[in-house]
């Protein structure tokens, strides 16, 4: 070790005994970034200003090596012990900056060499960068959390990573640092007893299961931080869309939004090969909403509103003549809503009444129509882009035929299908909320402000410990491994800053927070017997039961219908397993459909029957063991489900242990579910600031004969993967006159696809399933259009190539004739003197004149059955 000591740097730092050395497997260092003023030079004032290389064994370097290694070991959950950096990352060097009077200069330590940072001035500055070098084999700078890579203040980074140290400059303690479960790289560790390792196939299977399990969980609502004044603004477009759809004073409701994909009804259907009105006719054309327009139209009072051209949901308004109070004007004002639609596959944009458009999920092209398009020959198809883009399905010309419409309509269908496969959250904002944790022992010295990741992962570890101690049914084969690391002491209340989103592009639809959406679940899959946090499904009303008895039949309750969620938040989080890419979650309250005259106090649904012994326990009563909670053997999702894969068990994290339902969602092989939650305070779910400003809208109208009933107990919300979202809910959609034909067929065939749009069946029967992410709607449309045209042009070219090859093969040979039809002899008909070959209809012999010389030709059959002309002397 260097014997040189400098004022400002303690010489007491030494390498601890029995230390484990950590080495950097990769680096972003470059020696060309080192300073060049390494020689002391005294200026005219007797001052120096130079950079001295500090040896690796100097006290200054040892201090950094020990403190950085201790923090890395803590963050990586390594075994207890003393850790020291083996050396600096390749291309790095510690420098002692000497500046000031030559006899007593000021000393500043700098670690220099990084490509992305000019210099690291302190240990806390370098720790997140060192962690990135250890854990990111790709060296993707966007994954680094240091101040130079993510452009955040050092104080915020230090607080979020739990790196605040005492003024004495001691190394970060693992006991005061929230742990984070990260797969550590191959580092030198203390010897540990060998463990039996699973096979590679088992490890891969386990990782795939953890990665592809969509997440669902119920938790206590986080308490928001109420600012003195709103600092986040509600997006104008969101406010307009929600107000026009759900506002209590709105008379003309606008259900569709700019950019959404809809079906546009044609004024005159394009008849298919089977004739007018056939199933192979084109009744709708897909298009995107470009803008909306409200047009006031004066209408005479005596005019029948139903006889006016074009349907409208416009609301007539009467206006009195201001010049004469005794008389009124003879007209009323009708407000007509229309949409400017950009038709897909062509260059046409048209204004269409709001009564002539339908949601994309409500209509699907029939099999007969698709087959008719494939049956059009390539010549008639004419997929030339110069022709297809100019096609106008709304033209009144007689030239609009099915054959000419086939190519542009096929392109439009493919573009629409591609667009429905994209998704992205939009319009982010900062959501602040507080989490209360139980105090274990005396208060610890920790930061009052931590990152969302640190708090979530700390709670996740503790919740997993609880889950591991809960008994599972015998023979279930399920076991949750315990996590040895205890929950780090946390402050009584933590303020969390979370990035949330105001909206979502979900396939063909534009979804906003604060509106009611459909989920893929059926009500019978969600706590079919009820539990502490979720009500049991409602049964049929008394009138429905009486009617069913009078008809000699049975009637079901809410368990066979769909589930709705009032979307109150969208956020991105780490996967529960801690591995893989981030996932997007939706949070909100759940609703079910109950009979309109259903009354909760009269609902006699049983919660536990105790195997037929004793009195049945109704929902809300005490259990046989005198406790309240989830009955034994119940699971959140039990019984067969059309949804795959099954949902994850709930380890989530962002709330306290008492405020979280542990293992509410269980795997199909786990029959039990447990919950630990204190009684929640009665408060409205919408009082939570899960949106930029307190602006809520009433629930939409339920389907006829039903009403909405909350499923979750007050004060709780559900967190689900976006995978479980089926789509938007459109009140009264099945009563739309354009769907009469489809509703009649669904009633006759017993279909479930249409009923799912109003929640009468599970949402999985009619759901959006987007899988591709694009940052903007325009990027989605652009890529969808390009891919559709390229794919179909290639398909049509291959089809034409096959047709040409078949035609060429067919014209290469004369058709063979069987020998019995060939006769020999003289004379014949069908050939003139100028012909030297047999003509069709002859007896197989011909005569001709070649160079003035009469010659006889004879057709003979070869061994392979083909005809051959031969001259006969």
Give keywords.
six-stranded antiparallel sheet; 873 residues; seven-stranded antiparallel sheet; Cryptic loci regulator 2 N-terminal domain-containing protein; Clr2; globular
What does the secondary structure layout of this molecule look like, with pairings?
Elements: E1 20-22, E2 47-53, H1 59-75, E3 83-85, E4 93-101, E5 106-112, H2 123-135, H3 147-150, H4 154-160, H5 200-211, E6 216-220, E7 223-224, H6 236-246, E8 261-270, E9 282-300, E10 316-320, E11 328-343, E12 349-353, E13 357-359, H7 367-375, H8 378-381, H9 385-388, H10 402-419, E14 422-436, H11 452-469, E15 493-506, E16 509-512, E17 516-522, H12 542-550, E18 562-573, E19 583-595, E20 606-608, E21 617-618, E22 659-660, E23 676-677, E24 706-710, E25 716-721, E26 725-728, H13 740-749, E27 772-773, H14 777-811, E28 845-850, E29 853-861, E30 867-872
Parallel strand pairs: 1-3, 14-27
Antiparallel strand pairs: 2-4, 4-5, 6-25, 7-14, 8-9, 8-13, 9-11, 10-11, 11-12, 14-15, 15-16, 17-18, 17-26, 18-19, 19-24, 19-25, 20-21, 22-23, 28-29, 29-30
Helix pairs in contact: 1-2, 10-14
